[in-house]
Specification:
It comes from Sporosarcina pasteurii. This is Probable L-asparaginase. Belongs to the asparaginase 1 family. Residues 218-325 form the Asparaginase/glutaminase C-terminal domain. With 328 residues, the protein is an alpha/beta fold. It has two domains: 3-204, L-asparaginase, N-terminal domain (Rossmann fold, 3-Layer(aba) Sandwich), CATH 3.40.50; 218-327, Rossmann fold, CATH 3.40.50. Helix content is 27%, strand content 17%. It is built from eight helices and 13 strands. It has helices at 33-38, 64-80, 95-105, 128-139, 230-237, 255-266, 301-311, 318-327, and strands at 3-8, 48-53, 85-89, 112-115, 149-153, 156-159, 164-165, 174-175, 183-185, 191-193, 218-222, 242-247, 270-275. Strands 2-1-3-4-5-6-9-10 form an eight-stranded mixed β-sheet, sandwiched between helices. It has a three-stranded parallel β-sheet with strand order 11-12-13, sandwiched between helices. The protein has a two-stranded antiparallel sheet with strand order 7-8. Strand 9 and strand 10 (191-193) form a beta hairpin. Helix 3 runs parallel beside helix 7 and helix 5 (230-237) runs parallel beside helix 6.
Length: 328
């Protein structure tokens, strides 16, 4: 059997409430990774597992410090300690962001799988048990090698680049919208893949060999009818390094926001134009050509933020940053 390391981070998968039917007022961090594995003895039939508790918090508290610690831990575990794969238990609220950061930065071809739960470990009909078991299954099969960082919940396998949480409570919350799932874990306990990621990731990513101590400051501005540009002005005053414009429709913004973005560009702040709609590419349009702002392809604003943070570690040129968004 493969040797799999489970890194526990907290989240709903670790949560408890005394009332088994209360699926909303639970507290994360009640159960450890060891508690979860002990409750699922079937895991021992799939792989030899080792558990490390890296944190035990709600994913709303996850930040770049956790990402950098995870990257270091994963690479040490896979490259130095000889583990065959990694499973990370994580809260679902920001799971997709942690997954995408690792997808871009971890230098390995071995499986790295994130999982979580929509219902707490203490809840009636909790999805914790099967999600964790299936994540270990995916991390343990050879066909998972070379596919980047994967997200496994609800019997479904998703690419870290494409997947987003799309529902507050339903079990099928993680969707890749127009691109679809990469595969499934079926009732015969087999892992079935039907597609693989084309964009660069993990060991093929230029960011996987960077020494990263800190990340640039990048924020997201959400556009809406009648937006005044006040948020952009505040970010200019805060001296941020970059702004992701989560525009309306195909990546447009209000006149007031456009004027504020001009000020940001003149101050040397990198701006990228994205969309709030959740799917579809954002491409350059003539109206904003003078801003010389790269566009975010089909990345969600939260993922465009991560890619811009990494791009700013290496590049200042707009054309190079656009190449990064076209490649990753």
């Amino acid at each position: 059997m493969k040797n799999i390391k489970i890194i526990a981070m907290g989240g709903t998968i670790s949560a408890h409430h005394d009332n088994r039917t209360d699926l909303r007022n639970y507290v994360s961090g009640h159960y450890t990774g060891e508690d979860l594995v002990q409750a699922i003895p079937e895991i021992q039939e799939v792989a030899n597992v080792t558990i490390e508790q890296l944190s035990n918090v709600s994913s709303t508290l996850i930040n770049s410090t956790h990402w950098l610690a995870l990257k270091e831990n994963i690479e040490k575990s896979l490259n130095d300690e000889g583990y065959d794969g990694i499973v990370i238990t994580h809260g679902t609220n920001t799971l997709e962001e942690t997954a995408y950061f690792l997808h871009l930065t971890v230098n390995t071809t071995k499986p790295v799988v994130l999982t979580g739960a929509q219902r707490p470990f203490s809840g009636l009909s909790s999805d914790v048990h099967l999600n964790l078991l299936n994540a270990v299954r995916v991390a343990s099969v050879d066909v998972s090698y070379g596919k980047g960082v994967l997200v496994v919940l609800n019997d479904q396998i998703s690419c870290a680049r494409d997947v987003s949480k799309t529902n507050t409570y339903r079990l099928e919350t993680f969707q890749s919208r127009e691109l679809g799932y990469m595969g499934f874990i079926d009732p015969d306990h087999t892992v079935q893949f039907y597609r693989a990621p084309i964009r660069k990731h993990t060991s093929k990513s230029e960011f996987s060999t960077l020494k990263i101590d800190t990340l640039p400051s990048v924020d997201i501005v959400y556009s809406y009818a009648g937006a005044t540009g006040t948020m952009i002005e505040a970010l200019i005053n805060a001296n941020v390094d970059g702004i992701v414009m989560a525009g309306t429709g195909a990546g447009r913004c209000s006149d007031a926001e456009e004027i504020a973005l001009q000020k940001a560009r003149k101050k040397g702040i990198q701006v990228v134009m994205g969309s709030r709609v959740g799917s579809g590419r954002v491409v350059p349009i003539e109206q904003y050509k003078y801003l010389e702002a790269p566009t975010t392809d089909n990345l969600s604003p939260q993922k465009a933020r991560i890619l811009l943070m990494l791009a700013l570690l290496k590049y200042e040129d707009d054309a190079e940053i656009q190449r990064i968004f076209d490649t990753y």
